[in-house]
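Model it.
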Amino acid sequence: MQFEQTLIEGVLIRRYKRFLADVELPGRQVITAHTANTGAMIGCAEAGSRVWLSRSANPKRKYAHTWELVETRAGTLVGINTALPPRLVQEGIESGSVVELQGYRDIRREVPYGNENSRIDLLLTHPDSRDCFVEVKNVTALQSTSTNATIAIFPDAPSVRAQKHLRELITVAAGGARAVIFFVVQRADAVAVSPADDIDPTYGALLRQAVATGVEAIAYQARVSPAGIVLQRRLPVRLDAGYTAAGA
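Modeled.
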């Protein structure tokens, strides 16, 4: 995915009310940008960080700018816009780079499904195959292990919504369809993905239950730059210290 315009670089002043961020642009102009991320943004919302914004030409938008990228204290670029990962996964499927999800004829977005009033990010279908339900999650938080490995963790804040999505996928798998939880790691410094048990133990327990009952856990790392973002390679999904999800 290439950004349709040149992103605007600035310096983060503060993020607040979850969806807003004040950013100082070149020339010391301060604007308020929309933040398409409901999480805590651990390590990605520190005042003084370099950030990159897109600008919408839609005159009806209250805030014309959207926060897209941040540079962490360690110098890593991170994509924080949670609206982008489903698009990245779809592009990866269509280009053939996401090899695990090939063989489907049609891809539909935001399709209603389940028992809890949900919408699946991607529904893959083919007349000769069982339907494949793909729930996509954006991963930005990072933690270090005792061996100094850097593990991407999800979620970065307790998430009732993310828990609901796992319950829906468990039901899908039980009904005979293919169910996938797909983690998009929008940073280059992680070697694996793991549930954030210290932050949301319920999610961690549900993820382990989901995998045990047939839900596939897939993670891909994205190459992030101000020019664009693209899925680059698969990462293992680690469900505990001694276990890696099947196929990772």
